[in-house]
Amino acid sequence: MNKVSSIELLRFISSLMVLVWHYQQFYLPYNFFSEVELFYNNKSNQPFYEYLSLLYLHGHNGVDFFFIISGYVFAYVYLIEKKITLGKDFFLNRFARLYPLHFLTLVLVLFLQLYSQKFFNNFLIHTNNDFFHFVLNLFFISGWGFENGPSFNGPIWSVSVEIIIYIFFFFAIIKSRGHTIIKSILFIFFFVLIRKSANLDFFTNQINFNQNIINCGILFFEGVLVFFLNKKISDRKIFTTLGLALLTLSLVGNFKILIFLPSILIIFLNFEIFFKNKLGVIFNFLGNLTYGLYLWHLPVQLILIILIKNNDINFTIIESNFFFIFYLTLVFILSIISYYFFEKKLRDRIRNKY
Q1: How far apart are CA 54 and CA 22, in angstroms?
Q2: 8 A C-beta contact, residue 275 and residue 262
Q3: Which end of the chain, N or C, is less surrounded by CB atoms within 10 Å?
Q4: 116-150 confidence digits (pLDDT tens)
Q5: CA distances to 27, 44, 53, 306, 322 from 316, in Å
Q6: How far is it, in rounded angstroms, from Cα 32 to Cα 35?
Q7: What is the reported pTM?
């Protein structure tokens, strides 16, 4: 099916948010070599802080955008084509899309962390890099609550969490078709009720784990709901008004992230015709890079930290605009090469073979 250019743009922006947010990992305490401590104020020592302060402060919400975008995309792909009915087909598609790059970056980070441990007697950025956590990462369950904290290629936790919601989606929405809107609303209410429950220990003692799973479930099915609203509301003025109303509601009083995100998704969708006609090719290209940007930026950070250390370069370089641009450029180039010469080729090969 044709890609939704507005969604591809939003995916790219989300990945860029995470890249900028994780720039802090060049600083203490994540990078124990560095003597440069991170601080936030109007004269923050992070590059381009005057222009990128929102991303430095709130870039972690890019992951939340991934969750709601996934819900929309899954509804768009699997509920319109209606070709996927077997669990094998559904999960093979997910495996072919996600696992090859995950495995490649996991092994690369393993060797980089072993190098750091051998020559510097310490791990970099994430410290839970033992055999147990490697197994969790290997089987894509590093965010399910068994972990002691971030490990290896840490950002993969969000994809790990989404896998649980994929299972909900397949059995409740794809396998048992009909009443999709009602079921999506029920799922949202179900996860919201759990989120508001005072006893999150009902599932596990790891509160953060529960919040991640619950937030992913809410946002994913909000994305499914937005898809059907977009499909059924033919009057664009009504759809636009809905997006603006939700945006206003999310900003009144305490900030409401679970209302803000669907409002942004709706607003972006209202520009779909313009985006597709004017910049569709560019946005689709950028959207293809998002998974690579997400998984390559931490290995790149590890490599750069090791190179700076081995060449006795002063770590104040991380405060320079040049280094920031170099970091982003390196991740972008690697993501382009990765998508066209590894991810896409291996994905198609797996799908065609099985």
Answers
A1: 13
A2: no
A3: N
A4: 999 999 899 999 999 999 999 999 999 988 889 89
A5: 9, 13, 19, 15, 12
A6: 8
A7: 0.90
